[in-house]
Write a structure and sequence with these properties.
about 250 residues
């Protein structure tokens, strides 16, 4: 278990005692880190060891016993909050003076729409991504990549000509979908299919570049070689067939 200070801004009384327990490849952990960084909330980030024998920290196990020590867990003032989407809304409510607001104030319909499309990421994108990540054959992975693109085409229509899904600034949907940017970028190296494809979803591709370049995001999005290496390790641990990385030009 390694801890690192991640100071996104000046400290205040309400910010004291913020810790995030996570793992570097997790898109769900990245969501929480993006939100804290973009809002400038100082916090301590603790990288957990999830793969050794009994290596999860006691702090993680006691902070999220319902899921056996699943990350992410946010600890604020000694009290834990689990599940990435719950954490994002908690951060928005617990630190109301830290902008940008992930959910717009004063507009119940816009808040409801943001919650719907953020949930859509987990309900539709995640299930299509899993076989791309862990498919037993190259053909299965390519098929899954096509299904991922179809989901992103839906988000193409949602985004439209807006700079961010939150309209004038980053919002809940940006952070929810943004957690997957690193893995989406890695798809071409994993199976030969570019899931963030300017030819298929030009608006989403441009959004991914804008979001990925933001201060507080750019520094912590995992790079493609690291994710591909991690995926090979996970496949080996699960007894899945070795599928060599696709050679891109």
């Amino acid at each position: 278990m390694a801890a690192a200070e991640a100071t996104g801004g000046s400290s205040s009384e309400g910010d004291a005692g913020v810790t995030l327990l996570g793992f570097w490849t997790s898109p769900f952990v990245l969501r929480a880190r993006f939100a804290l960084n973009l809002k400038g909330i100082p916090y301590t980030y603790v990288e957990e060891d999830l793969f050794g024998d009994n290596t999860k920290s006691r702090l993680l196990l006691v902070s999220n016993p319902a899921h056996g020590g699943k990350v992410p867990v946010l600890i604020h003032g000694g009290r834990p909050v689990a599940e990435s989407m719950v954490i994002l809304e908690y951060i928005d409510e617990a630190f109301p003076n830290h902008l940008p607001r992930l959910l717009p104030s004063g507009d119940p319909h816009r808040r409801a729409a943001a919650r719907f499309w953020a949930a859509y990421v987990d309900q539709k994108l995640l299930p299509t991504w899993i076989p791309l990540y862990g498919g037993a054959t190259a053909e299965e992975r390519v098929k899954a990549a096509g299904e991922v693109i179809a989901v992103l085409e839906t988000f193409e229509g949602v985004l439209g000509e807006k700079e961010f899904f939150g309209r004038e600034s980053v919002g809940l949907v940006d952070v929810a979908l943004g957690g997957f940017i690193g893995w989406l970028r890695a798809s071409e190296a994993m199976c030969g299919v570019r899931t963030i494809d300017p030819a298929r979803t030009p608006l989403v591709a441009a959004w991914a570049e804008r979001f990925g370049a933001l201060d507080g995001v750019r520094e912590i999005v995992p790079d493609v070689p690291g994710l591909v290496e991690y995926n090979l390790m996970k496949r080996a641990r699960r007894g899945l067939p070795f599928l060599p990385p696709h050679q891109t030009q």
